[in-house]
Amino acid sequence: MHHPLDTHRWQLPIVERTTGGGGSLFGGVGLAAGVIALEQATEKPIVWATGQYLGITQQPAALDLELSLPAIGRNVTQGRVVGYLSNSEPRREIITVLGACGSRPPVAQGLWLKPPKVKAPMNCPSLDGHHDDPSLHDHLEIRLARGMFGFSGDGEPSGDGGNSLWVRMPNVQHDRGALAIIADYQPSALGNALGQFMSCTSIDNTIRYANQADSEWVLCENHMDFVGDGFGYGSVNMWNQDGVLLATASQTIIVRMPK
Question: How would you class 26 by CB atoms within 10 Å of its CB: exposed for 0-12, middle for 13-18, buried for 19 or more?
């Protein structure tokens, strides 16, 4: 059965609030834009999304987001969002997001993960000032619950490749888009795993959603699984303050020595 192709368009500004280090688009923001676009177009909650980062941008700029829904089902709709740099000739593709939206009857339920035991957010040291230039980081609060924050060297290496962060976005609901942004702090575990301040660039980021639950803070249980040949693979489990699993995410990074 062939499904009709439904196309939608948005624009994502690349400004201080949407950039990470060096004035380029923060990868989690690009993934979040794709997540929100897919949810709005399908009018269904997102289940899974993956972003492939194809190019680096510099502010001020904008991305033209073009969405298509090649598989529209009764319960699940799958789509694609492609972000092109605005006013570029030839067209330059910066990010591609694939995802599935929908809901189905709950025929079974289970959870085989346990949240880490860490101190409450306000009992953990703040990571204010871990960045130099105005960016997205100014609009989040991060507290180090365990290990070392590999982007700055704050804290002490855990010795097992993992760190834990409490993260919140004040005045922003921690919806699925916000969780996609927060998940992109997973590579902070790289420096923790290697025991020194490290830099990296994300190639991809995949997020899978579990429960939608209110929480002032999100606990990110980050872990590095492998580093070698200039690449690294890591994952994160995201919990609310009551120990409810919100999402899991994983990504591939290019490992770099800091300048």
Answer: buried
